[in-house]
Amino acid sequence: MSENPEPMESEPTEMVAVEAAAETVAEVSEDTEADSTTTEDGATEPSRRSSVLETEGEIAADYLEELLDIADLDGDIDTFAEGGRAHVSIITENDELVGRDGEVLEALQELARLAVMTETGHRSRLMLDVAGYRDKRRKILQGLAQDAVDSVKESGEAARLAPMNPFERKIVHDVVAAAGLVSESEGEEPQRRVVVLPKA
Q: Which residue positions in the chain have pLDDT lower than 70?
């Protein structure tokens, strides 16, 4: 085990937060390895799954709380399980951990998932939100998707939206499906986008 370096004083910038998160991934694994949660025989599948998601949320919350301390940022952390995923929200007025177009948020989400996987040995589909960014983004995307649906219905021609990440594409796909149309994704990441198709 390598020795942990002493914390260095730095300004609470986006880059500091990301770098600090990367440096503490190993520490999360070492400090909590002995507390890894396992399910007992006789537990029902839903209760076992719920326990797993709660554990994922707790691991990520502890990790992110340490990150906030390192970056000297204020924020409360809330966890819950929904749609078969653990959800973690950092409630704050500061959007430094969101970044341009959510880039820092996405990076932190992957680091939080890595922290969970490092401890549990299993991949996590955990979702992270900061300062309500995903909720705001969801509303915007739902509006864009509805505009695309209206355009396709009126013109009878396919509509191609701007490149989006998987989370955003799913929101669009759901709106299109609810409107009775079909959509598909095309292209390679990070330029993969949704195409809304007219009825055959």
A: 1-45
